[in-house]
Amino acid sequence: MRGQLIGAEPTTRDGPAADPGPATVEPDLAHHGDVEATPGLVDLAVNVRRDEMPDWLADPLTAALADLAAYPDPRPARAAVAARHGRPPEEVLLTAGAAEGFVLVARALTGVRRPVVVHPQFTEPEAALRAAGHTVERVLLDPAEDFRLDPARVPADADLVMIGNPTNPTSVLHPAADLAALARPGRVLVVDEAFADTTLAPGVDGEPESLAARRDLPGLVVVRSLTKTWGLAGLRIGYLLGEATLLARFVAGQPLWAVSTPALAAATAIAAPTAVAAERAIAARLAADRDHLVARLAALPAVRVAGRPASAFVLIHLPGADRVRETLRERGWAVRRGDTFPGLGPDWLRVAVRDPATSDAFTQVLGEILEA
Fold it and tell me: Which tens digits make up the pLDDT trace of 138-159?
């Protein structure tokens, strides 16, 4: 599949596509894993780590609560984040989570003519574009190719391209060179790196395939989230990295004091070398836990793990997965449905990586359901 223009005739790189047949149900872009995670169920639907918060993070957060009478000052946090990525502070925009970043981009770039979102991926970028009045073209990656990116599939005249790396929900980590090939003058390239700190590669000191430190690519905007690894989804903290003149356009649409004082304290702490080292250790443990889960899933009949997972979740294909998901809920387990992601369907499920004991218990129940 080369791409589909929402609200217009489906197209390919070579011209109009064949008649797609009866209209299909449009995916629910507003659906997220927290809806699946009903209290009382074991949560494998949400990709937020829930380990105990370390003192070096908890202490600044607690201290920030004593200073809530003052308006937030983002300058120390912005400087800390900039130093982490080797950028000047004016190339950092702190946001109330990555989701606010997508909204700021969508509202500021009103003049784009051909926005393209590479799917399957997190649905908020497209949802934000559509809410801002954009007509969005989708480039759907092929499951037969393990959802790997072919830069040639992105239309050459697309002036806004949005893609995740590593991608939610596929857990694919695209080579940085393939992403860099999408950058060009006259185009804004938005790369969602919300899960970049979960990735690991042999011989790589740092986050493999990240573009966060690249200042040479025209129009590049990197979106980062601090809520996943550190269990801060309720605090809402993230940031954008990019050219100062481009970020200034996003700042113009951001409310004053959009990021709270506790969130700024968290951003400062997580940018420190202590936190970066801790992230690398967490990523190593996650890789081992992920390998364990993948091995258990691969041993089950009819279950196919998509590609080579690289993040805190695994995408699986399973005929009748929509019915299996409901049975899992009856047995006490929540997993993320796949049919709300463009390019997937009811036979896909996303499963969060947890500790080996939890993965063993989950795959045992899943195996019992498949054998029934």
Answer: 999 999 999 999 999 999 999 9
Cβ-count burial 48-79 (b if 16+ within 10 Å, e if not)? bbeeeeeeebeebbeebeeeeeeebebeebbe
Residues 173 and 285 reside in one and the same domain: no
Q: Are residues 338 and 246 located together in one domain of the fold? A: no
The region that residue 125 occupies, defined by phi over 0 for left and psi between -120 and 50 for alpha, beta otherwise, is alpha
pTM: 0.92
Domain boundary among 256, 272, 288: 272
Selection from 292, 125, 278, 128 nearest residue 139 by Cα:
125
Same domain, 95 and 168: yes
Do 145 and 114 share a domain, yes or no?
A: yes
Torsion of CA 115, 135, 109, 339, to 10 degrees: -70
Q: What is the pLDDT of residues 270-293, one digit of tens each?
A: 999 999 999 999 999 999 999 999
Last residue of a domain, one of 229, 251, 272: 272
Distance (Å, whole) CA 114 – CA 327: 42
Q: Look-up: residue for tokens 């989701």?
A: 99
Q: Is the pLDDT of residue 6 over 50?
A: no
> How far apart (Å, rounded) are the C-alpha atoms in residues 123 and 304?
23
Note whether 289 and 354 are within 8 A (CB): yes
In a shared domain, residues 90 and 217:
yes
Domains in the chain, number: 2
* Domain span including residue 334: 29-50+276-371
Q: Which two tokens stand for residue 142?
A: 């092929």
At 159 the three-state DSSP class reads coil
Phi and psi at 339, nearest 5°, equal -75, -5
What is the rounded distance in angstroms from the CA atom of residue 269 to the CA atom of residue 256?
22
Cβ-in-10-Å burial (0-12, 13-18, 19+) of 126 comes to buried
User: Which whole-number Å values give the CA distances from 342 to 15, 37, 92, 141, 248, in the listed order?
Assistant: 21, 21, 30, 10, 31
**Could you tell me the CATH number of the domain that includes residue 216?**
3.40.640.10
Residue 193 domain-assigned?
yes
For residue 216, the tally of other CB atoms under 10 A from its CB is 8
* Model pLDDT, residue 25: 78
